[in-house]
Amino acid sequence: KQRTIRINMQLQQHIRDCYEHINPVGINAPVLISQKGTVYTVQRINVMLKEIKKKYRLQIGNFSCHSLRKTFGRQVYNMNNDNSELALVKLMELFNHSSVSITKRYLGLRQEELLNTYDCLSF
Asked: What positions does the domain Tyr recombinase occupy (predicted)?
């Protein structure tokens, strides 16, 4: 699948800096290529993330492309507390979910809401 995304100014500058450091063959050449000269697959990136997790002893449960996608969603949601419902609608579309309730479940928000119910109890 292909998706059009917007890259903010801070990320654009970071990409420029990396681009100069990597010095790719041409403007249309892939930037991240394997030693064999092929583009990395999602599966290979997941293996590399697991190696990084092990090497640096990162205390992260699941460290994968999928967990990075989920983390992105949580960050967007948390940064938009004032407009959390609008953020959920946008995330639903970005994630290609069929409903906001699926997005809430995906981000773990529904479980959080249910657990917060117990905080209302007093004895």
From this structure: 1-119
Number of domains in the chain: 2
Residues 6+ apart with CB under 8 A from 16: none
Q: Do 110 and 84 belong together in one domain?
A: yes
What pLDDT digit, counting tens, does each position of 61-74 carry?
Answer: 889 999 999 999 99
Contact 59, 68 (CB under 8 A): no
Which residue has 């640096």 as its token pair?
56
In a domain, 72, yes or no: yes
pLDDT tops 80 at residue 17: yes
For helices 100-107 and 109-119, give the axis angle rounded to 10 degrees: 70
CA dihedral sign of residues 108, 111, 113, 116: negative
Note whether residue 3 is domain-resident.
no
CA distance 118 to 123: 12
Is 50 in the same domain as 76? no
Distance in angstroms (rounded) separating the CA atoms of residues 88 and 107: 10
22-61 pLDDT tens trace: 877 777 877 778 888 888 999 999 999 999 999 999 998 8
